[in-house]
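Protocol step 4 of 6: structure prediction from sequence.
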Amino acid sequence: MKNLLSKVFSKKAKIQIEFCQNNLDRFLNEQTIADYGKFLENPRIQYKEYECLSECKLCKNTPYAKVNGQIMSGEDSQDLLNKLYDELK
């Protein structure tokens, strides 16, 4: 019973993720949209999508997100998603 309760009431901190809508539009495709949707269903993740995060130079070149206030980028949208999954560990 204790193991079940510790899984249900995990003490791991929530992860705050901010996305730039322009960046998502530029780098996501139908497959990665589904992968990101599945990722964002995790109850430890709180996310918000903004029209712009004022990181224009970065935004034009690579997919990125702000994770707990820190910028995280990837070579492509799948690489970024893999890095976001690593944050959950």
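Step 5 (inspection) to follow. The longest helix spans residues 77-88.
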